[in-house]
Amino acid sequence: MATNRYSDETRTRRLDPDSFANGYFRNAVYRHWDPYEDIPQELLDQDRERLISREQTEQQFDVLRRTLALFGAGEEAVTDDLAPLAMAIGDVDKQLFVTSQLYEEAKHAAFFDRYWHEVIDPVAEARGFEVTAPTDPRYFPDAYVESFDRTERAMDRLLADESPEALAEAFCHYHLVVESVLAQTGYYSIQSAWSPTGADMGVDGEPIHLEGLVEGITRIRSDEGRHVGFGMHEVQRLVAEGVDPAIVEDTLSELLPLVAGTVENPASEVDTTALVEYATEKLGRRIEIITDTNADLPPVETLVHVEGGRDVSTV
């Protein structure tokens, strides 16, 4: 007789409101935002006019386009590849959270698509630059492509292997490298180059404040904090339940050179050596926390803190 997975005499209610995952899911519901309505049109219009007026070469403008293309492709990849995790984890509260993450990644992809078509393309046309697509291969270094190819393989593995070790590797790829270290370094780069509160990282010329872009990134960070926290919690739990910490450390260490190869860009207005150092420090701190089963996870706001960035708790 087939098992009815919808009935379970061990549960008195379908969800566990006191679970870690359910708390994160409810936080996602509370912090919902709309990539079309909650990023004011006037901010995007202002960004467009400031970029048109800025004295810059096409190569300098391509630094911004490359950054946004990498972000947009990353969000699309997560939206496309994360589903096997929801199938593998089993627990309904965790499944609720992962499905909320899928929805949020789709929102992020929508924001970057909107920004490209409402800001980037009109600026290129106005300045006489080549109009390029956000999917143009020129924007994706080999290290970036390899990183997401490996991540896709780790997620696809869950369709046949739901072992704790396979789950730990999947969380390491997505939540701790793509969502945490790679994205966090990208936020830092944007904050440094296109906000007046950014770090002094050797930006050429007068810094330009792109308030629409920073507003979108701030809201995205408010979502990514939950994604990173959930992944760290799950890896820490798996280690506590017997997964060899070396699997976690080796997986993350193997991916670090791909992160470095992604953020290094000789044409950038930002000193990318500092970005590599930033990514390395973030990854080291993540490893330190998740391999210590007694360590407390930082609050969501701390997980996505960016030097000089607006506090995501206000979003």
Q: Please state the overall shape, judged from the principal axes of the Cα atoms.
A: globular
Low-confidence segments = none
Total number of helices: 11
Q: Please state the average pLDDT score.
A: 85
CATH homologous superfamily label:
Ribonucleotide Reductase, subunit A
Measured as a percent range, the helix fraction is 55-70%
Query: What fraction of the residues are assigned to beta strands by DSSP?
Result: under 5%
The radius of gyration over CA amounts to 20 Å
CATH top-level class: Mainly Alpha
Give a written overview of the molecule.
The chain has 315 residues and is mainly α. The chain is built from eleven helices and no strands. Helix 2 crosses helix 5. The termini are far apart.
How are the SSEs placed, and which strands pair?
Blueprint: H1 20-30, H2 41-53, H3 58-81, H4 83-89, H5 92-127, H6 142-157, H7 164-194, H8 211-240, H9 245-263, H10 272-290, H11 300-303
Helix pairs in contact: 1-5, 2-5, 3-5, 3-6, 3-7, 4-5, 5-8, 6-7, 6-9, 7-8, 7-9, 7-10, 9-10
